[in-house]
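Hi there, hope your week has been kind to you so far. No rush at all, and the record is pasted right below.
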Amino acid sequence: MRVLVLGATGRLGRMLQWGWRQETRFVPAWHGRRAGQSNDINTFDILSQPKALRDSVSECDVVLCLAGVTPASGADVALNQEIALAVRAASGSIPLLVASSAAVYGRADGLCREVDPAFPMAPYGIAKLEMEQALARAGGPVTCLRIGNVAGADQILGRLPTKDPFTLDRFADGRTPCRSYVGPATLARMLADLCVAAGAGRALPALLNVACPGGVEMGALLDAVPHRWSARTAPDTAIPKVVLDTDTLGRFTALDERAGHADRLVAEWRAFIDQWEQRR
């Protein structure tokens, strides 16, 4: 089995390059818009080089699309839909897994389930939801992966190392923001399991939450590093808790509640940094 990973030079793609080093169930093919630290990167632009995209897709059994635009890039987040639709058109009947985001849930209350309506608040979440809806209209074997916070690609660990202390919102119950998280190694295993399932002909749902069970407070995450932080009274616009329901995910990959604990997340992040990122 061959799995094409589009956007492999981004942060999540680099995590997969690290996490799939010992993968034996399939052969990954890596794509990037620009060359990465690996010599195995096939370089082309998804939107302006459609033939290169079609040629790469035609050689694979499963496509995992991590390519897209984040707010930090400064580009128009609406490009996420354009990129995803271009990949969908090129994929035909080949199973396609596309990275979406837990940001589509916005100000959630309780567990966020894939079957519940999504009400994103920020432009990025709105753009990702519009991407999902456009892919649903396009049809075909497509699964949008609503990925939670990834340790090292988030707004906490992803900003380290820095000597500056962090300021976190603290709510009336004394808690700091709680989010669904997943570490680099666990994410790599989960995505590998999903690709294997799709390549074996198992029908994946159109929408799928991807995260460890439960949630972790951002204060606990910084304490596990450890890194200094201070608290401020949370404004009315702050979102106290976004926790993804992972029951459906558990049908396709083994879930470990301990993998979502702060110390485990920090350990996986450090392993990725030490073994891969510092080679850049």
